[in-house]
Every structure is written in structure tokens, then in C-alpha cells.
Automatic annotation (TrEMBL), chains A, B:
<dbReference type="Pfam" id="PF03807">
    <property type="entry name" value="F420_oxidored"/>
</dbReference>
<dbReference type="InterPro" id="IPR037108">
    <property type="entry name" value="TM1727-like_C_sf"/>
</dbReference>
<feature type="domain" description="DUF2520">
    <location>
        <begin position="134"/>
        <end position="259"/>
    </location>
</feature>
<dbReference type="Pfam" id="PF10728">
    <property type="entry name" value="DUF2520"/>
</dbReference>
<dbReference type="InterPro" id="IPR028939">
    <property type="entry name" value="P5C_Rdtase_cat_N"/>
</dbReference>
<feature type="domain" description="Pyrroline-5-carboxylate reductase catalytic N-terminal">
    <location>
        <begin position="10"/>
        <end position="97"/>
    </location>
</feature>
<protein>
    <submittedName>
        <fullName>DUF2520 domain-containing protein</fullName>
    </submittedName>
</protein>
<dbReference type="InterPro" id="IPR036291">
    <property type="entry name" value="NAD(P)-bd_dom_sf"/>
</dbReference>
<dbReference type="InterPro" id="IPR018931">
    <property type="entry name" value="DUF2520"/>
</dbReference>
<dbReference type="InterPro" id="IPR008927">
    <property type="entry name" value="6-PGluconate_DH-like_C_sf"/>
</dbReference>
């Protein structure tokens, strides 16, 4: 009987934002998620129920016969738990992590087949994302393992690339600026608007256009506003409006200076 | 003969990013743009041709008989040119500026009818924007003037609000965070990717999802990544990757700390 890629049994280790989104997407594509591990029973059970899997909160109870183990833990927890994760598994088992920041060689000497399966996106449990446009970056210990991971990723997305650990580290750093720091700018704007009793949703057209613009223009060519013109009147005025919040004032000043230094 | 709002003759003073986008949008809605002023002939002529208007580079040649004068100049130039702008016009002429940062009372004592016509968006000449979703904030010296400005804005957008100068100043400050500072985060990511020879467009799905998320979640609830978890391993690693660029390193550090301080 010919087996399809979706018959690959998968164990998820971790049930956080990324694991939840990825497990559900793979489940919907027909993959068999055999087990979900999480430190807390609630997280493990919640995700397991959504993908019709077993769950456990004990690493020694991990299914020993799965083909693919997808580890999606906080970077700090991962190193600590790694020995228990690989213990007592089949020789053919393929272990991957999903972290942009962790090099592949963390697996080296621990198990024979390993790799990285990094979907570069921001995941929250409260929100389902469209995987078809997410770039996946794959790295593996053997070319066969890489092919398997690419085939799994290709069921979800058309944008599947191989990237080594150095490249992935750079992508991850750029993604922190692109996503986390951008989102923090939204959060600071939301704080300001709340202070002045104005609704945040009035900003949404501006947020959307700022994002759309860089599909067409390079970010430095898309820049507008007082910092790039270095309009000292406006900048000084804004700094004085932020006088009661030294942290936000400092950020305003440094980012404005950086815009002026780098964009002109 | 009943006149429609589109018969209001308009003079544009300034031919920059905002003026160019606004004049073209009003022209397309059937407004008669009678004249465009700009300090440089090239800008004045380019926009004037696109909206079938006269152009001038001399403020003393401004059309004296127009109904509406829309001033869209750099904040610093505006104050200097204001006396020449209002000189020798009809008593009924309505003068507005388009700046979020300038209070309405800059007009006070200079002319009888005045106001502010602030479309809160990021405008670049190279890119046409969809005005229908742009919020317009209107302020005027009389309620009749406010009604006229609201009627003009309503031909372009369904989101027309009255806002006083204090509210507009706050919106503008929030918009600098939302748009200019966000765009700078994109620009810093683009620099990093260029350094590592990776294409910027791989970031676009992440940029789009980061923007879409805050349609559904509050920005602080949408946050992900190493700073909110305060994953010191990852943060230290990123800081050392930025060692050759102290400005970017400082920004990384301060924004990460601010995320951690404010989002938890």
C-alpha cells in the first residue's frame, strides 16, 4: 500500500501559540497527530482534544514509535528537557524544533535524525493564521530528512525554503524588528490614545497602509512624518507631550534620530 | 441653478505627498482645482497638470477668488508663508491646513474663515491610496465652515469626524508611533536582511499578519517573541549580533525592555 505524506505520525512537544497553530493546521490537512505533551495538563488536553490526539504531561510517557517529533518549547526549557525528549525512541525517529533562534546542532550527538522546522510568523492561540502564505525554513541532518520536512511543510505552504542556522538566526532577528517591535509601536500608540480617550481603531487604516506600502516601496523610501524631515518644531512638541513618560520619550527620541540618520 | 459641493473651487498651496494625493482624489471626484502653488516649479507643474489646474511659484499670484484654500506645507514653512497666503483674498475664502501637529489658532486674527482638514494617513507620491477608508478630522472657525469641510471630506471617505486641536495633536503623536516608527522597524529589518544577503519580501507575510492581528486583538495581547517572554538567551544573542551597530543595538535593548515593562 502506498503511504502518503499525511500518514506520517507526529508527536507535538509543547502546546503554546506556535504548536497550537501548527498542530491544528497539520491535523486539518489529514496528518495524524498521535500525542501532545505539555508541562501543564490544561494546555496539553486542550490542544490534544482539538487534534484528536492523546496527551501527556510526562516526557517519559512520550510515544516511542512516532516518525516525527515537533518540539516547540520556550528556548530556555528546551535545552533542559532535550535529553528526556530523545530518550527511548526509534532509531528512525526525526526530531525537529521550530525556533528561529536555536541552531540545529543543539541536537548533535543526541539522536541520529534531526532538524529544524521554522514557520516564520507570529502566532497567538486566539487567532487562526493562513499557513498558505507563511514561509517555512527547513534544515536537517540528512537530505532525506530535509525532503520529508519539506514535503510536510509543502502541504501547508508554497513558500518552503532550506536555510542554515546562520541564515535562520538572521531571519529571526529581522523578524523581531518586523513583528514584535512593530507591534510594540502599535501598543504604545494604543496607550497614548487611551490616555486621551480616543479609540484605537481609528489607527487601523494607517496601520494597514503602512504595511501595504512596503509591498511596493522599500521601507526607507516609504518613510514619511516629522523625523525624516527632521521637523524640530513637531519633534520638540511631541517630546514635551511625553514628558510624563520618560521611557516613551526616550524611545521617541532615539527612533526619530535613527530615522533621520539612516533614511536620508 | 443648484450648485453641488464639487463646484467648490479649490486652490492647493503645497504640492508634496499629502497635497498630491488629496488634490488628485478631489479632482477625480469632480472638484475643480483651480491652482497649485509650490516653491519649486517642477512640483507645482507636475501636480497642476495631473489635476488640470494653473500653477504658480509666487504666493502673490495666488488666485484671489477661490472658495477653499488647502495649505499643505512643511510645518516650518507654513508659519513663515502664512501672511502671504491670506493676503488679498475674498472675505468668504476658507483657509485650512492639513497638519495634525498645528493647532487651528495659527489662523486666528489672520483671516475670518479658517480651519483644519486632516486626513490621517501616510502619503507618498509614488503610491495612490484608497481615500474611502481614511479618517478625516475636521475643525473650523464656524459651524458653517465645519459643515462645508465635512461635506468635502464626505465625498472621499465615510469616516469624517470633528476633532479639536488637542485631540488632533494626540492623534498625530499616536500616528507617528503607528506609522513612522513602525516603518522604521521595517527599514531596520531590511538593513539586517541586506547585510545577510536575504530578500526583504520574505518578511511580507509577517508584516501583514502583524497588522491584521490588531484588528482582532489589542496590541498588548497580540505581542509574541523573546522580549515579552524575556528570554534572556535569545535577547543576549541578538544583542551580540548587533554589536557592530551600536544605534540598532541600543534600540533593540530599549524596545525589548519596554515590551517587557509594559506588556506583562
Amino acid at each position: 500500500m502506498k503511504r502518503s505524506i499525511e500518514d506520517t505520525p507526529i508527536v507535538f512537544i509543547g502546546a503554546g501559540n506556535l504548536a497550537t497553530n501548527l498542530a491544528k493546521a497539520l491535523y486539518r490537512k489529514g496528518f495524524r497527530i498521535v500525542q501532545v505533551y505539555s508541562r501543564t495538563e490544561e494546555s496539553a488536553r486542550t490542544l490534544a482534544e482539538e487534534v484528536e490526539a492523546e496527551f501527556t504531561t510526562h516526557l517519559e510517557e512520550l510515544n516511542s514509535f512516532s516518525r516525527l517529533y515537533i518540539v516547540s518549547l520556550k528556548d530556555s526549557a528546551f535545552e533542559e528537557l532535550l535529553p528526556s525528549i530523545v530518550a527511548n525512541k526509534r532509531k528512525e525517529a526525526l526530531f525537529v524544533h521550530t525556533a528561529g533562534s536555536i541552531p540545529m546542532n543543539i541536537w548533535e550527538g543526541r539522536t541520529e535524525h534531526y532538524g529544524v522546522f521554522y514557520p516564520m510568523q507570529t502566532f497567538s492561540k486566539q487567532r487562526e493564521v493562513d499557513f498558505s502564505e507563511i514561509p517555512f525554513f527547513i534544515e536537517a541532518s540528512t537530505s532525506e530528512d530535509a525532503e520529508l520536512l519539506k514535503a510536510v511543510a509543502a502541504t501547508l505552504s508554497e513558500r518552503v525554503y532550506e536555510a542554515d542556522s546562520e541564515q535562520r538566526k538572521s531571519l529571526h532577528l529581522a523578524a523581531v524588528f518586523t513583528c514584535n517591535f512593530t507591534n510594540h509601536m502599535y501598543a504604545l500608540a494604543a496607550e497614548l490614545l487611551k490616555k486621551y480617550d480616543l479609540p484605537f481603531d481609528v489607527m487601523l487604516p494607517l496601520i494597514d497602509e503602512t504595511a501595504r506600502k512596503v509591498h511596493q516601496l522599500e521601507p526607507k523610501d516609504a518613510q514619511t512624518g516629522p523625523a525624516i524631515r527632521y521637523d524640530a518644531n513637531v519633534i520638540d512638541n511631541h517630546l514635551s507631550m511625553l514628558a510624563d513618560d520618560p521611557e516613551m520619550q526616550k524611545l521617541y527620541e532615539l527612533i526619530s534620530r535613527s530615522i533621520h540618520n539612516r533614511t536620508n
